[in-house]
Amino acid sequence: MASNGIRDRVAIVGMGCTKFAEHWDKSASDLLVDATKEATASAGIDLKMVDAFWLGTLFSGQSGLTLSRPLKIDYKPVSRLENYCATGSEAFRNACYAVASGAYDVAMAIGVEKLKDSGFSGLPNSNSVGDGTRAGLTAPATFSLLAPAYAKKYGVSDEQLKEVMTRIAWKNHKNGALNPRAQFRKEVPKDTIACSPLVAGPLGIFDCSGVSDGSAAAIIVRAEDAHRYTDRPLYVKALSFVAGPAAGPIDPDYDYTTFQEVVASAADAYAQAGIKDARQELAMAEVHDCFTPTELVLMEDLGFAARGTGWKEVLAGTFDLEGELAVNPDGGLKSFGHPIGASGLRMLFECWLQLRGEAGPRQIASVARGRKLALTHNLGGAPGECVSFVSVVGAERS
Amino acid sequence: MTPMRGLLAYGAYVPYARLDRKSIAEALGAPAGSGTRAVAAYDEDTTSMGVEAARTALRGARTTPELLYFATSDPAYLDKTNANAIHAALDLPASAMAVDVAGSVRSAAGALRAALDARAPALAVLSDIRSGLPGGGDEKDGGDAAVAFLVGEGDVLAERIGHASLTAEFLDRWRVPGDAYSRQWEERFGEFAYVPLGEGALVEALKHAGITAQTVDHLIVAGPHGRSNRRVAASAGTRKDAVVDDRTAVIGNTGAAHAGLLLADVLDRAQAEQIIAVVSLADGADVTLWRTTAAIGGRGARSTVAAQLTSPGRISYATFLTWRGVIRREPPRRPDPQPPDAPAAARAEAWKYAFTGSRCQACGARHVPPQRVCVKCHAIDRMTPEPMRDVPASIATFTVDRLAYSMSPPVVVAVVDFEGGGRFQCEMTDVDPKSVKIGDRVELTFRRLYTANGIHNYFWKARPIRGGQD
């Protein structure tokens, strides 16, 4: 029994990503059509050449008809799935396995979410409250539980922690300002971030990702076929997905300073990809910055910083666009908002641009110097009870 | 000799929040008197307060009630027995009958009388919330509280040595079902009706007990009107110093709970072999005479009425009106709260109402809520029920959620670790959001989380450990 991975067995040969925005004038169907058009054009194929589809969406539709109806897909397999905030990544993972298995030659993974039609601040709730005994926390509140726990464990003052959180938001907005597809395209002064109205715990509005609509898609083929579609494919090096036992909220041994699910999925992904030192080998990482304390903790869980030092590395600029390891070079959830089903594939889209040297003013210098690997990471749920996804893609087939 | 029947235990609950009567005067520009009144919080009702009083009564009690009478003038439900939620929260056996004696202040005297006259151990829970129209007497002079008495035979704290009741039909206070507030005839008519009833019933009870008024050590007179209460007390013939403070200056008149609350207050400080007379004026007069026993000295440390009088929980008049539903505030742009599903709530009765977790027989790990598979050793179906509602805990981490829906934002949520194992994430209440710290000690309290589609969602919250608690 082992997680063997499918290193270098499949490749991404085309991608599409809509602008993430308050698309008052577009439905989920419109966004799906837009992302599909761009992805198929990018791969130079007709939609008819796609053999099977995986659609990720949490709230914006059920069943494969959500995709086949707007695109008029003729009698092909379309799976709709969700896995919380890792939904888009999960669509990608399943499409990759389908191609690696030999079942299909060409697969498309696509994610979409239409959040802005609900009229709510933040995410809508899921269905039933059951017996009514679970504390009805909002997403920012659950992730804000990390802040006091981290500060206490590592002797960081409230003021220092706020500075770290502020710098993460500032950095991601700075990156997003350079990205035409981002929801927010403005740099935000640190003072504005630090003084924004509180939402939950120490989290101000600027510590939270936005709410937007969007869609992104990837075309996946066997690695050996990749050059029939593009001369610069991305090879899938690792795909790891884990669901934890959700023990944190009932187990006093969990200390709210880590996501054990992320540690497990990162270890699995690095083993699949043959990565020994992620910080030294990766050109970039797109991580799940739903809230600023999340990105802080992820720097340690993904092995980019030693335990208890992530906050210092953030302040030192290690994860800036020009830093040692660029994290969220596209602007992250902070600049894009978080249309659940689309986010994982939007992250992959940045890897696609960066490793192919197409990221324009955001282009990471280390790619030219020979770093050819990029990582995406999603998590869904809450501290102590989440699902986590880590992928590694590379520009070269080893 | 027949075994002595009387009070085996009791408990009182005065909510945390206080409304300064001056704040009513400031807002409405009309005099509202001085002092404060006790206010049931947005997450409390007569049922939840009844649970809190009954928990105190039963803590350490050796007798399990076989009957539960719940009395209130302000039931949370009609056509559904409110006593059942109390029964469930106390984890009483299914064989114990639970009934409401609902609708009026006199229900309380009836519930206690029924408990005393019963042939089995009985628990009388008396609870009330008093509201009135803004600027009215009930609003400023009313109060919210609950009290519970465990009645049975054996080592009683006090025995009933005499009682008398007088019933008369007259219109003093009334409320048509569906109305939010009661109405009242003029006080001087109430005085005319109540004074002879109170005086007459007291005389009867003293005769029944074979004692004189001079032997009464503590005289309690509770009723809807201060004037008639004072006149009955003055003409009772007891020593002047026997008349007890009715606590209305601090907590207000707590309706169905009030006579019982004052009895609990007296029991908190009474010596052995003292005589307590309780006169309750409500649609008649009900008098009970008690004699404390030597066992009163062993009542133990508990949350006394006196200790609960003072509270830092001051609320503004605007908050009071919001909690009472008079002011409807703009809700957050969040989905409305959803009611619990009846089958799911029924399956989870021991957890939801009694806060019963589970303990792994294989490794001893505690689980809150109960689990089938052990979080530590992964043993399957090796669990036994683990009562957790009286286990203190400390805060592992917390947050203040300013986005979540609440009648009283912001919502404070804490992850709490129980002494001896077990963790739970729950809302906090009766707390200043600015004062919460990791490591703070908390205890559980039974609350109504919210009401949706006419369904009350009862569950437990954590609150800072109350001062004066054992």
Secondary structure blueprint with pairings:
The complex is a heterodimer of chains A (398) and B (470).
Chain A: E1 10-17, H1 28-43, E2 52-56, H2 65-71, E3 78-81, H3 87-100, E4 106-114, H4 139-144, H5 146-154, H6 158-176, H7 190-194, E5 198-200, E6 203-204, E7 213-222, E8 234-243, H8 260-273, H9 278-281, E9 282-286, H10 292-301, H11 310-316, E10 326-327, H12 332-336, H13 340-355, H14 365-368, E11 373-382, E12 385-394
Chain B: E1 5-13, E2 17-20, H1 21-28, E3 36-39, H2 46-58, E4 67-72, H3 83-89, E5 97-102, H4 106-117, E6 122-128, H5 137-141, E7 145-153, E8 158-167, E9 173-174, E10 183-184, H6 187-209, E11 218-222, H7 226-234, H8 248-251, H9 258-269, E12 275-281, E13 284-292, H10 305-309, E14 313-315, H11 317-323, H12 342-347, H13 349-352, E15 356-360, E16 366-367, E17 383-387, E18 393-401, E19 411-418, E20 423-428, E21 441-452, E22 455-464
Mean pLDDT of chain B comes to 95
- What value does the average pLDDT of chain A take? 96
Number of DSSP strands of chain B? 22
Give the SSE order of chain A as H and E letters: EHEHEHEHHHHEEEEHHEHHEHHHEE
Strands of chain A, count: 12
Query: Which sequence of strands runs across the widest sheet of chain A?
Result: 3-2-4-7-1-8-12-11-9-10
- CATH class value of the largest domain in chain A: Alpha Beta
Radius of gyration of chain B: 22 Å
Largest interface: A-B, 39 and 46 residues
Report helical residue fraction of chain B: 10-25%
Strand content of chain A: 15-25%
CATH-level-2 architecture of the largest domain in chain B: 3-Layer(aba) Sandwich
What does the main sheet of chain B amount to? 9 strands, mixed
The shape of chain B, in one word, is: globular
Topology-level CATH name of the largest domain in chain A = Peroxisomal Thiolase, Chain A, domain 1
What Rg of chain A is obtained from the alpha carbons, in whole angstroms? 20 Å
Uncertain regions of chain A: pLDDT < 50 for 5+ in a row? Answer: none
Strand content of chain B: 25-35%
CATH homologous superfamily label of the largest domain in chain A:
Thiolase/Chalcone synthase
What's the CATH architecture name of the largest domain in chain A?
A: 3-Layer(aba) Sandwich
